[in-house]
Design goal:
single chain, mainly alpha, 0% strand
Length: 392
Protein backbone atom coordinates (compact mmCIF):
# COMPACT_ATOMS: atom_id res chain seq x y z
CA UNK A 1 0.00 0.00 0.00
CA UNK A 2 1.29 3.42 -0.87
CA UNK A 3 1.47 5.72 2.13
CA UNK A 4 1.10 9.40 1.45
CA UNK A 5 2.10 12.17 3.84
CA UNK A 6 -1.52 12.66 4.87
CA UNK A 7 -1.36 9.44 6.88
CA UNK A 8 1.24 10.74 9.23
CA UNK A 9 1.26 14.49 8.82
CA UNK A 10 -1.47 16.09 6.73
CA UNK A 11 0.65 19.24 6.34
CA UNK A 12 3.91 17.57 5.33
CA UNK A 13 4.93 17.81 1.67
CA UNK A 14 5.24 14.60 -0.31
CA UNK A 15 8.79 13.31 -0.52
CA UNK A 16 10.38 12.47 -3.87
CA UNK A 17 10.32 8.78 -2.91
CA UNK A 18 6.59 8.88 -2.21
CA UNK A 19 5.86 10.70 -5.46
CA UNK A 20 7.98 8.18 -7.34
CA UNK A 21 5.98 5.38 -5.72
CA UNK A 22 2.77 6.97 -7.01
CA UNK A 23 4.21 7.13 -10.52
CA UNK A 24 5.34 3.51 -10.31
CA UNK A 25 1.84 2.35 -9.33
CA UNK A 26 -0.15 4.64 -11.61
CA UNK A 27 -2.47 2.75 -13.96
CA UNK A 28 -4.80 3.79 -16.80
CA UNK A 29 -7.94 3.09 -14.79
CA UNK A 30 -7.44 6.59 -13.37
CA UNK A 31 -8.73 7.90 -16.68
CA UNK A 32 -12.18 6.59 -15.70
CA UNK A 33 -12.26 9.61 -13.38
CA UNK A 34 -12.18 11.87 -16.43
CA UNK A 35 -14.83 9.77 -18.15
CA UNK A 36 -17.28 10.18 -15.28
CA UNK A 37 -16.48 13.82 -14.57
CA UNK A 38 -16.67 14.86 -18.22
CA UNK A 39 -19.85 12.84 -18.69
CA UNK A 40 -21.54 14.64 -15.79
CA UNK A 41 -20.48 18.03 -17.19
CA UNK A 42 -22.04 17.24 -20.56
CA UNK A 43 -25.23 15.88 -18.96
CA UNK A 44 -25.71 18.92 -16.76
CA UNK A 45 -25.35 21.12 -19.82
CA UNK A 46 -28.23 19.22 -21.49
CA UNK A 47 -30.51 18.99 -18.45
CA UNK A 48 -34.11 19.37 -19.70
CA UNK A 49 -35.17 21.69 -16.85
CA UNK A 50 -33.50 25.06 -16.33
CA UNK A 51 -31.55 25.14 -13.08
CA UNK A 52 -29.76 28.36 -12.09
CA UNK A 53 -25.96 28.08 -12.34
CA UNK A 54 -26.15 24.53 -13.77
CA UNK A 55 -24.40 25.71 -16.94
CA UNK A 56 -21.63 27.39 -14.95
CA UNK A 57 -21.19 24.28 -12.81
CA UNK A 58 -21.01 22.12 -15.94
CA UNK A 59 -18.37 24.39 -17.51
CA UNK A 60 -16.33 24.34 -14.30
CA UNK A 61 -16.47 20.55 -14.16
CA UNK A 62 -15.28 20.43 -17.76
CA UNK A 63 -12.31 22.68 -16.99
CA UNK A 64 -11.42 20.57 -13.95
CA UNK A 65 -11.69 17.52 -16.19
CA UNK A 66 -9.12 18.97 -18.60
CA UNK A 67 -6.71 19.48 -15.72
CA UNK A 68 -7.27 15.94 -14.45
CA UNK A 69 -6.73 14.47 -17.91
CA UNK A 70 -3.50 16.43 -18.37
CA UNK A 71 -2.18 15.39 -14.95
CA UNK A 72 -3.05 11.73 -15.48
CA UNK A 73 -1.42 11.77 -18.91
CA UNK A 74 1.80 13.25 -17.53
CA UNK A 75 1.95 10.84 -14.60
CA UNK A 76 1.29 7.77 -16.75
CA UNK A 77 3.82 8.94 -19.34
CA UNK A 78 6.32 9.36 -16.50
CA UNK A 79 5.72 5.75 -15.46
CA UNK A 80 6.60 4.56 -18.95
CA UNK A 81 9.67 6.80 -19.01
CA UNK A 82 10.97 5.82 -15.56
CA UNK A 83 9.72 2.22 -15.19
CA UNK A 84 9.31 0.96 -18.77
CA UNK A 85 9.85 -2.74 -17.99
CA UNK A 86 7.25 -2.71 -15.23
CA UNK A 87 4.82 -0.56 -17.23
CA UNK A 88 4.77 -2.95 -20.18
CA UNK A 89 3.58 -5.81 -17.96
CA UNK A 90 0.12 -4.33 -18.30
CA UNK A 91 -0.20 -5.86 -21.77
CA UNK A 92 -0.26 -9.31 -20.16
CA UNK A 93 -2.76 -8.41 -17.44
CA UNK A 94 -6.28 -9.58 -18.35
CA UNK A 95 -8.08 -6.84 -16.39
CA UNK A 96 -5.89 -3.76 -16.12
CA UNK A 97 -5.06 -3.76 -19.85
CA UNK A 98 -8.75 -3.23 -20.59
CA UNK A 99 -8.52 0.25 -19.07
CA UNK A 100 -6.44 1.58 -21.95
CA UNK A 101 -9.83 2.32 -23.44
CA UNK A 102 -10.53 4.83 -20.67
CA UNK A 103 -8.02 7.34 -22.09
CA UNK A 104 -9.70 7.94 -25.48
CA UNK A 105 -13.13 7.93 -23.86
CA UNK A 106 -11.99 10.51 -21.32
CA UNK A 107 -10.57 12.59 -24.16
CA UNK A 108 -13.92 12.40 -25.98
CA UNK A 109 -15.64 14.21 -23.10
CA UNK A 110 -13.12 17.03 -23.47
CA UNK A 111 -13.71 17.21 -27.24
CA UNK A 112 -17.47 17.45 -26.79
CA UNK A 113 -16.90 20.02 -24.07
CA UNK A 114 -15.04 22.26 -26.50
CA UNK A 115 -18.15 22.28 -28.66
CA UNK A 116 -20.47 22.91 -25.69
CA UNK A 117 -18.43 25.28 -23.53
CA UNK A 118 -15.51 26.35 -25.69
CA UNK A 119 -17.24 29.01 -27.85
CA UNK A 120 -17.96 31.23 -24.83
CA UNK A 121 -14.38 30.87 -23.59
CA UNK A 122 -12.17 30.94 -26.68
CA UNK A 123 -14.55 31.74 -29.54
CA UNK A 124 -16.40 29.58 -32.05
CA UNK A 125 -13.59 29.15 -34.56
CA UNK A 126 -10.93 28.21 -32.00
CA UNK A 127 -13.27 25.85 -30.15
CA UNK A 128 -14.29 23.98 -33.30
CA UNK A 129 -10.70 23.83 -34.60
CA UNK A 130 -9.48 22.43 -31.28
CA UNK A 131 -12.27 19.87 -31.10
CA UNK A 132 -11.64 18.87 -34.70
CA UNK A 133 -7.90 18.30 -34.17
CA UNK A 134 -8.47 16.37 -30.94
CA UNK A 135 -11.17 14.26 -32.58
CA UNK A 136 -8.71 12.86 -35.11
CA UNK A 137 -6.33 11.96 -32.28
CA UNK A 138 -9.18 10.38 -30.34
CA UNK A 139 -10.34 8.39 -33.37
CA UNK A 140 -6.82 7.06 -33.97
CA UNK A 141 -6.44 6.08 -30.30
CA UNK A 142 -9.83 4.38 -30.35
CA UNK A 143 -9.03 2.36 -33.47
CA UNK A 144 -5.67 1.25 -32.06
CA UNK A 145 -7.13 0.33 -28.67
CA UNK A 146 -10.06 -1.55 -30.17
CA UNK A 147 -7.72 -3.79 -32.16
CA UNK A 148 -4.57 -4.08 -30.06
CA UNK A 149 -6.10 -5.00 -26.72
CA UNK A 150 -8.31 -7.80 -28.12
CA UNK A 151 -5.23 -9.06 -29.97
CA UNK A 152 -3.35 -9.23 -26.65
CA UNK A 153 -6.36 -11.02 -25.17
CA UNK A 154 -6.01 -13.66 -27.88
CA UNK A 155 -2.22 -14.01 -27.75
CA UNK A 156 -0.75 -12.90 -24.41
CA UNK A 157 -3.36 -13.04 -21.67
CA UNK A 158 -5.05 -15.77 -19.67
CA UNK A 159 -8.85 -15.47 -19.91
CA UNK A 160 -11.58 -17.81 -18.76
CA UNK A 161 -15.32 -17.51 -19.11
CA UNK A 162 -15.85 -17.72 -15.35
CA UNK A 163 -13.54 -14.70 -14.85
CA UNK A 164 -15.17 -12.61 -17.56
CA UNK A 165 -16.78 -9.29 -16.57
CA UNK A 166 -18.16 -6.30 -18.46
CA UNK A 167 -14.65 -4.82 -18.25
CA UNK A 168 -14.07 -6.61 -21.57
CA UNK A 169 -16.11 -3.81 -23.14
CA UNK A 170 -13.69 -1.02 -22.21
CA UNK A 171 -11.20 -1.37 -25.10
CA UNK A 172 -13.98 -1.93 -27.63
CA UNK A 173 -16.30 0.98 -26.86
CA UNK A 174 -13.94 3.97 -27.49
CA UNK A 175 -14.52 3.85 -31.26
CA UNK A 176 -18.25 4.03 -30.63
CA UNK A 177 -17.73 7.04 -28.35
CA UNK A 178 -15.64 8.70 -31.06
CA UNK A 179 -18.53 8.05 -33.46
CA UNK A 180 -20.93 9.92 -31.17
CA UNK A 181 -18.40 12.75 -30.95
CA UNK A 182 -18.33 12.83 -34.76
CA UNK A 183 -22.09 13.41 -34.64
CA UNK A 184 -21.55 16.42 -32.41
CA UNK A 185 -18.63 17.77 -34.45
CA UNK A 186 -19.78 17.31 -38.06
CA UNK A 187 -22.44 20.09 -38.11
CA UNK A 188 -19.78 22.65 -37.18
CA UNK A 189 -17.53 21.76 -40.13
CA UNK A 190 -17.63 22.88 -43.73
CA UNK A 191 -18.02 20.56 -46.70
CA UNK A 192 -16.22 18.30 -47.57
CA UNK A 193 -14.75 17.81 -44.08
CA UNK A 194 -18.22 17.48 -42.55
CA UNK A 195 -18.94 14.65 -45.00
CA UNK A 196 -15.64 12.97 -44.13
CA UNK A 197 -16.27 13.12 -40.38
CA UNK A 198 -19.89 11.95 -40.74
CA UNK A 199 -18.86 8.98 -42.89
CA UNK A 200 -16.06 8.02 -40.54
CA UNK A 201 -18.47 8.41 -37.64
CA UNK A 202 -20.68 5.68 -39.07
CA UNK A 203 -17.62 3.53 -39.74
CA UNK A 204 -16.40 3.97 -36.16
CA UNK A 205 -19.85 3.06 -34.88
CA UNK A 206 -19.75 -0.16 -36.89
CA UNK A 207 -16.15 -0.84 -35.80
CA UNK A 208 -17.31 -1.00 -32.19
CA UNK A 209 -21.02 -1.53 -31.61
CA UNK A 210 -21.63 -5.00 -33.13
CA UNK A 211 -18.61 -6.41 -31.31
CA UNK A 212 -19.75 -4.83 -28.03
CA UNK A 213 -23.21 -6.35 -28.46
CA UNK A 214 -21.55 -9.75 -29.00
CA UNK A 215 -19.65 -9.32 -25.73
CA UNK A 216 -22.94 -8.65 -23.95
CA UNK A 217 -24.27 -11.97 -25.23
CA UNK A 218 -21.24 -13.73 -23.76
CA UNK A 219 -21.68 -11.77 -20.53
CA UNK A 220 -25.26 -13.02 -20.21
CA UNK A 221 -24.01 -16.59 -20.68
CA UNK A 222 -21.23 -16.11 -18.13
CA UNK A 223 -23.67 -14.73 -15.53
CA UNK A 224 -26.08 -17.62 -16.10
CA UNK A 225 -23.38 -20.27 -15.81
CA UNK A 226 -21.08 -18.81 -13.15
CA UNK A 227 -23.27 -16.28 -11.31
CA UNK A 228 -22.15 -12.82 -10.23
CA UNK A 229 -18.49 -11.74 -10.15
CA UNK A 230 -16.77 -11.15 -6.82
CA UNK A 231 -17.76 -8.09 -4.80
CA UNK A 232 -14.77 -5.94 -5.75
CA UNK A 233 -15.98 -6.09 -9.37
CA UNK A 234 -19.53 -5.14 -8.42
CA UNK A 235 -19.50 -1.76 -10.15
CA UNK A 236 -18.75 -3.44 -13.48
CA UNK A 237 -22.44 -4.34 -13.60
CA UNK A 238 -23.10 -0.85 -14.97
CA UNK A 239 -20.57 -1.04 -17.80
CA UNK A 240 -23.05 -2.79 -20.10
CA UNK A 241 -24.95 0.50 -20.33
CA UNK A 242 -21.92 2.13 -21.96
CA UNK A 243 -22.04 0.66 -25.48
CA UNK A 244 -25.84 0.62 -25.46
CA UNK A 245 -26.19 4.26 -24.45
CA UNK A 246 -23.43 5.37 -26.78
CA UNK A 247 -24.90 3.27 -29.57
CA UNK A 248 -28.21 5.09 -29.21
CA UNK A 249 -26.54 8.48 -28.89
CA UNK A 250 -24.33 7.92 -31.93
CA UNK A 251 -27.21 6.85 -34.16
CA UNK A 252 -29.36 9.81 -33.13
CA UNK A 253 -26.61 12.44 -33.51
CA UNK A 254 -25.28 11.08 -36.80
CA UNK A 255 -28.85 10.77 -38.06
CA UNK A 256 -29.55 14.40 -37.18
CA UNK A 257 -26.51 15.50 -39.20
CA UNK A 258 -27.15 13.25 -42.18
CA UNK A 259 -29.93 15.08 -44.10
CA UNK A 260 -28.10 18.39 -44.54
CA UNK A 261 -24.58 16.99 -44.94
CA UNK A 262 -25.48 14.17 -47.32
CA UNK A 263 -27.80 16.39 -49.35
CA UNK A 264 -24.88 18.77 -49.91
CA UNK A 265 -23.00 15.80 -51.37
CA UNK A 266 -25.76 14.56 -53.67
CA UNK A 267 -27.13 11.93 -51.27
CA UNK A 268 -30.35 13.53 -50.06
CA UNK A 269 -32.36 10.29 -50.06
CA UNK A 270 -29.66 8.51 -48.05
CA UNK A 271 -29.65 11.37 -45.57
CA UNK A 272 -33.38 11.09 -44.89
CA UNK A 273 -33.03 7.33 -44.47
CA UNK A 274 -30.14 7.78 -42.05
CA UNK A 275 -32.24 10.18 -40.01
CA UNK A 276 -35.02 7.60 -39.72
CA UNK A 277 -32.57 4.86 -38.84
CA UNK A 278 -31.15 7.12 -36.14
CA UNK A 279 -34.52 7.60 -34.45
CA UNK A 280 -35.73 4.01 -34.73
CA UNK A 281 -32.32 2.53 -33.90
CA UNK A 282 -31.88 4.89 -30.97
CA UNK A 283 -35.22 3.85 -29.47
CA UNK A 284 -34.38 0.16 -29.94
CA UNK A 285 -31.02 0.58 -28.20
CA UNK A 286 -32.68 2.59 -25.44
CA UNK A 287 -35.15 -0.20 -24.76
CA UNK A 288 -32.35 -2.76 -24.70
CA UNK A 289 -30.44 -0.57 -22.27
CA UNK A 290 -33.45 -0.40 -19.96
CA UNK A 291 -33.10 -4.15 -19.35
CA UNK A 292 -29.41 -3.88 -18.50
CA UNK A 293 -30.10 -0.84 -16.33
CA UNK A 294 -32.67 -2.77 -14.32
CA UNK A 295 -30.28 -5.69 -13.97
CA UNK A 296 -27.48 -3.37 -12.82
CA UNK A 297 -29.75 -1.93 -10.11
CA UNK A 298 -30.71 -5.38 -8.83
CA UNK A 299 -27.10 -6.58 -8.85
CA UNK A 300 -25.92 -3.45 -7.03
CA UNK A 301 -28.52 -3.88 -4.30
CA UNK A 302 -27.30 -7.44 -3.79
CA UNK A 303 -23.65 -6.33 -3.71
CA UNK A 304 -24.39 -3.60 -1.17
CA UNK A 305 -26.06 -6.11 1.12
CA UNK A 306 -23.01 -8.38 0.86
CA UNK A 307 -20.51 -5.53 1.21
CA UNK A 308 -19.23 -3.53 -1.73
CA UNK A 309 -15.60 -2.44 -1.14
CA UNK A 310 -14.57 0.90 -2.62
CA UNK A 311 -12.06 1.00 -5.44
CA UNK A 312 -11.55 2.95 -8.66
CA UNK A 313 -13.98 0.57 -10.33
CA UNK A 314 -16.76 2.59 -8.72
CA UNK A 315 -16.37 5.08 -11.57
CA UNK A 316 -18.22 2.42 -13.52
CA UNK A 317 -21.34 3.83 -11.82
CA UNK A 318 -20.87 7.13 -13.67
CA UNK A 319 -19.81 7.16 -17.33
CA UNK A 320 -22.11 4.35 -18.55
CA UNK A 321 -25.04 6.07 -16.86
CA UNK A 322 -23.91 9.40 -18.36
CA UNK A 323 -23.93 8.16 -21.97
CA UNK A 324 -27.25 6.38 -21.44
CA UNK A 325 -28.66 9.62 -20.03
CA UNK A 326 -27.29 11.60 -22.99
CA UNK A 327 -28.81 9.09 -25.39
CA UNK A 328 -32.13 9.44 -23.57
CA UNK A 329 -32.03 13.25 -23.73
CA UNK A 330 -31.08 13.13 -27.43
CA UNK A 331 -34.12 10.96 -28.11
CA UNK A 332 -36.24 13.46 -26.19
CA UNK A 333 -35.01 16.32 -28.38
CA UNK A 334 -35.59 14.32 -31.55
CA UNK A 335 -38.96 12.70 -30.80
CA UNK A 336 -40.38 15.40 -28.47
CA UNK A 337 -41.70 12.63 -26.23
CA UNK A 338 -41.98 13.66 -22.58
CA UNK A 339 -41.04 10.10 -21.58
CA UNK A 340 -37.45 10.62 -22.67
CA UNK A 341 -37.18 14.07 -21.11
CA UNK A 342 -38.43 12.83 -17.75
CA UNK A 343 -36.33 9.67 -17.83
CA UNK A 344 -33.28 11.69 -18.88
CA UNK A 345 -33.76 14.13 -16.03
CA UNK A 346 -34.03 11.30 -13.49
CA UNK A 347 -30.93 9.62 -14.89
CA UNK A 348 -28.92 12.84 -14.71
CA UNK A 349 -30.03 13.34 -11.10
CA UNK A 350 -28.87 9.82 -10.22
CA UNK A 351 -25.62 10.42 -12.07
CA UNK A 352 -24.91 13.59 -10.07
CA UNK A 353 -25.51 11.72 -6.81
CA UNK A 354 -23.25 8.83 -7.87
CA UNK A 355 -20.54 11.24 -9.00
CA UNK A 356 -20.57 13.14 -5.70
CA UNK A 357 -20.15 9.93 -3.70
CA UNK A 358 -17.48 8.39 -5.92
CA UNK A 359 -15.52 11.62 -6.41
CA UNK A 360 -15.35 12.34 -2.68
CA UNK A 361 -14.18 8.81 -1.88
CA UNK A 362 -11.67 8.91 -4.71
CA UNK A 363 -10.23 12.20 -3.46
CA UNK A 364 -9.87 10.70 0.01
CA UNK A 365 -8.30 7.52 -1.34
CA UNK A 366 -5.88 9.47 -3.51
CA UNK A 367 -4.81 11.67 -0.61
CA UNK A 368 -4.37 8.72 1.74
CA UNK A 369 -2.63 6.79 -1.02
CA UNK A 370 -4.38 3.45 -0.93
CA UNK A 371 -5.79 3.81 -4.45
CA UNK A 372 -2.36 3.87 -6.07
CA UNK A 373 -1.92 0.16 -6.64
CA UNK A 374 -0.74 -1.57 -9.79
CA UNK A 375 -2.11 -5.13 -9.94
CA UNK A 376 0.48 -5.92 -12.60
CA UNK A 377 3.17 -5.60 -9.91
CA UNK A 378 1.19 -7.46 -7.25
CA UNK A 379 0.85 -10.72 -9.13
CA UNK A 380 -2.94 -10.53 -9.43
CA UNK A 381 -4.31 -12.46 -12.42
CA UNK A 382 -0.87 -13.70 -13.48
CA UNK A 383 -0.31 -13.99 -17.19
CA UNK A 384 1.50 -16.97 -18.69
CA UNK A 385 3.45 -14.58 -20.90
CA UNK A 386 7.01 -13.79 -19.84
CA UNK A 387 8.48 -10.42 -20.73
CA UNK A 388 12.14 -9.67 -21.18
CA UNK A 389 12.05 -7.71 -17.95
CA UNK A 390 10.97 -10.88 -16.11
CA UNK A 391 14.05 -12.80 -17.20
CA UNK A 392 17.06 -12.55 -14.91
Amino acid sequence: MTILPGDADSKAPASPKQLLDIVRNFTPNWFTVTMGTGGLALCLNQFPIHIPCAGDAAAMLWLVNIILFAVFTLVYAARWAIFPHEARRIFGHPVMSMFFGAAPMGLATIINGFLAFGPSLIGDAAAVATAHALWWIDAAMSLACGLAIPYFMFTRQDHRIERMTAVWLLPIVPAEVAAASAGSLAPHLATPEAFNVLTLGYALWAYSTPLAMSVLVLLFLRLALHKLPENDMGASAWLALGPIGTGALGLVLLGEDAPAILAANGLADVGRTAQGVGVVGGVIFWGYGAWWLGLAVLKTIRYIRQGLPFNLGWWGFTFPLAVYAMGTLALGRTTHLALFDVAGGVLVGCLAAFWAIVASRTAHGAWRGYLFVSPCLKGAYPSPVKFESDVV
